[in-house]
Amino acid sequence: MWCYRGGSISAEPRINDRIRVPEVRLVGPSGEQVGIVPLAKALELAQEYDLDLVEVAANARPPVCKLMDYGKFKYESAMKAREARKNQAHTVIKEMKLRPKIDPHDYDTKKGHVVRFLKQGDKVKITIMFRGREQSRPELGYRLLQRLAEDVQDLGFVESNPKQDGRNMIMVLGPHKKKTEAMAEAREAQAARKAERQGLPADAEVEDSVEEPVVEASAEEPAEA
């Protein structure tokens, strides 16, 4: 019985003299089909073009190999993977805590934070905290959550309806805008501000790279006294 003992199986394709087959189906540097040729002939062509012979389909019969600059190919693949990771959307759930009898100024301040979170494409968990006799008036929290949902309805929607959780009442708002769209708009706005500082038209291209907006793991507002 065959048994694998230690070591990792490399995901790297076989190249040049690491290819161990009598013949290959060869693809030229521009993607043209050369056909089935002996391995020695394929290696000779690779040297002639100053390229590598790379096995791109090992399970084919015969294996498919392509003439390419393998170092350049690996570099470009790494850059594409890095760009994909940079643009990956990370959904974050922020949290905002309110008291049922919050005063108008504090309400406007905290609503402003909710607006900012939704514009960034993040979900927001709204928590109404009841204390003492307030627990006998859950309708106060429900009305406050309804008011907040109506005030930000252009930016978000009620993803999870208000529900009682012990001494708290919780509602979750979801953004209308996808995280990727919010990130793209943030980059455009930052580029426009940089162009303005440099005295360029707002739609001019800026050579400097634009940093990604920082995505916080959580944002929790302090509870009202």
Automatic annotation (TrEMBL):
The Translation initiation factor 3 N-terminal domain, residue ranges: 15-84
Subcellular localization(s) per the UniProt record: Cytoplasm
Pfam families: IF3_C, IF3_N
GO function term, MF aspect, one: translation initiation factor activity
Keyword Plastid: no
Segments forming domain Translation initiation factor 3 C-terminal: 92-175
Gene3D superfamilies: Translation initiation factor 3 (IF-3), C-terminal domain, Translation initiation factor 3 (IF-3), N-terminal domain
Annotated keywords: Cytoplasm, Initiation factor, Protein biosynthesis
Stored InterPro entries: T_IF-3_C_sf (IPR036788), T_IF-3_N_sf (IPR036787), Translation_initiation_fac_3 (IPR001288), Translation_initiation_fac_3_C (IPR019815), Translation_initiation_fac_3_N (IPR019814)
Biased composition range(s): Acidic residues: 204-225
Region (Disordered): 179-225
Keyword set includes Cytoplasm: yes
Basic and acidic residues bias (residue ranges): 180-197
The protein's assembly and partners: Monomer.
NCBIfam families found in the cross-reference section: infC
Family, similarity comment: Belongs to the IF-3 family.
PANTHER family according to UniProt: TRANSLATION INITIATION FACTOR IF-3, TRANSLATION INITIATION FACTOR IF-3, MITOCHONDRIAL
Function: IF-3 binds to the 30S ribosomal subunit and shifts the equilibrium between 70S ribosomes and their 50S and 30S subunits in favor of the free subunits, thus enhancing the availability of 30S subunits on which protein synthesis initiation begins.
Protein name: Translation initiation factor IF-3
Organism of provenance: Streptomyces melanogenes
